[in-house]
Amino acid sequence: MTEAVRSAAPTLRSAVKFVLLTGVRKSEFIDANRSLGATNRSIIFRELLPNLVAPIIVYVTLAIPSNILFEAALSFLGLGVPQTVPSWGRQLSEAAQIFRVAWWMMLFPGLFLFATTLSFNLVGDGLRDALDPRTGR
User: What global pTM score does this model have?
Assistant: First the structure.
């Protein structure tokens, strides 16, 4: 689990940096707080962090399906999690050998993999539409 967090951290950091550099850092509300005498700490905790929560949540919900598919692909190839851990990719790999006899052994793991990634993508899109004020919806 720690390796997954370490590998996702640079991408998440660049997404947060993009949000800071494109709109939040040079906004009028930052200048207004500075002119009212707010400290850097209060600006960070009262203005910047609440504006960063939405992009982080959206990024995470959109990154989860790609990580699920990546794990399934590696397990399908035999390079994923250990044999004792259940994986949809390994189930698909084992079902591919007996597909002509028991097609349903491949159907259900594939459907669940599809449904899970689709649901995370739809949740991420919905959160982006609800939380991003720039979309205008």
Answer: 0.70
Q: Which long-range contacts link 69-72 to residues 24+ away (Cβ below 8 Å)?
A: 69/113, 69/117, 72/113
User: Number of structural domains, the chain?
Assistant: 1
What DSSP element (H or E) covers 62?
A: helix 49-76
Q: Angle, nearest 10°, between helix axes 88-97 and 49-76?
A: 20
Longest dimension (CA), the chain: 74
HSE value, Cβ hemisphere, 13 Å, CA-based, for 79 = 5
Domain containing 56 equals: 2-135
> What length does the chain have?
137
What pLDDT, in 10s, does the model give residues 24-76?
656 777 788 888 888 888 888 887 777 777 778 888 888 899 999 999 999 99
Mark 50-86 as b/e (b = at least 16 C-beta within 10 Å): ebbebbeebbebbbbbeebbebbeebbeeebeeeeee
Q: How far apart are CA 28 and CA 31, in angstroms?
A: 5
d(Cα 39, Cα 27) in Å, to the nearest integer?
16
